[in-house]
From TrEMBL:
InterPro entries: Calcineurin-like_PHP, Metallo-depent_PP-like, PPA2-like
Family classification: Belongs to the PPP phosphatase family. PP-2A subfamily.
GO terms under cellular component: cytoplasm
Residue ranges of domain Calcineurin-like phosphoesterase in the record: 3-65
Entries under SUPFAM superfamilies matching the protein: Metallo-dependent phosphatases
Subcellular location: Cytoplasm
Protein name (database record): Calcineurin-like phosphoesterase domain-containing protein
Length: 84
């Protein structure tokens, strides 16, 4: 992620697009996103990603959550934050 040029318009495909537009879903692995950009990802791949990258949590903030903070999946691998 450190090598991605974030000082640009988000492209329609590629890693920057995938980071920006991928969404959580109640699935185990991957799925095609109905947005037409990014992917749907589930609990198992999130746990694997965190393990491989020595992370405990992925924080994301581009999805509305009424509670202000919402942990996803049973292992609480991902948190979505409401930023104002």
């Amino acid at each position: 992620m450190r090598i991605i040029d974030r000082n640009c318009e988000i492209p329609h495909e590629g890693p920057f697009c995938d980071l920006m537009w991928s969404d959580l879903e109640e699935i185990e692995t991957w799925g095609v996103s109905p947005r037409g950009a990014g992917w749907l990802f589930g609990s198992r791949v999130t746990t694997e990603f965190n393990h491989v990258n020595n992370l405990e949590l992925v924080c994301r903030a581009h999805q509305l959550v009424q509670e202000g903070l919402k942990y996803m999946f049973q292992d609480k691998d991902v948190a979505t934050l409401l930023l104002c």
